[in-house]
Amino acid sequence: MPHLPPPPIPQTLRDMLKDYPGHIEALEAALNDVVEKPFKGTPLFEQAIWALEGALEAFISEARGELKAAEASGDSAEVGRAKAKERLMFRARSGNGGMRLGLMDDLWDYFESNGDAFR
């Protein structure tokens, strides 16, 4: 397989998660896994969408845990930050938010233009 640049993180997700660089790195790793270890029979674009959704669901779970911990601490400022993070992660994962199919054009174009490299 020729050396390709890594698949792009959709810009909307990058923008939404700009304050969470570790989350962006996790999305990059998830997409790189799709390219490095694809499974047969399913288009790579679909696999990439599933990988992003899985990572975003993990971020939601993490945010929920942080909210529970903040609520247990009784620190209202921390609770507010945790609620905001949880809302952001839900919005990023939403089909009407960060995962809106119309926002995936760069990712689609990547797999379409490099399709021969994956055969």
Which helices and strands, and how do they pair?
Blueprint: H1 11-16, H2 21-36, H3 44-73, H4 76-93, H5 105-113
Describe this structure in words.
- The termini are close together.
- The chain has helices at 11-16, 21-36, 44-73, 76-93, 105-113.
- With 119 residues, it is mostly helical.
- The chain contains 5 helices and no strands.
- 66% of the residues lie in helices and 0% in strands.
- The chain has one domain (11-27, 44-118).
- Helix 3 (44-73) packs antiparallel against helix 4.
DSSP strand tally: 0
Return residue spans where pLDDT drops below 50 for at least 5 consecutive residues.
none
The helix content is 55-70%
Q: Radius of gyration, Cα only, in angstroms?
A: 16 Å
Largest sheet: none
What gap, in angstroms, lies between the N and C termini?
9 Å
Strand content: under 5%
Structural class estimated from helices and strands: mainly alpha
Rounded mean pLDDT score = 93
Order of helices and strands: HHHHH
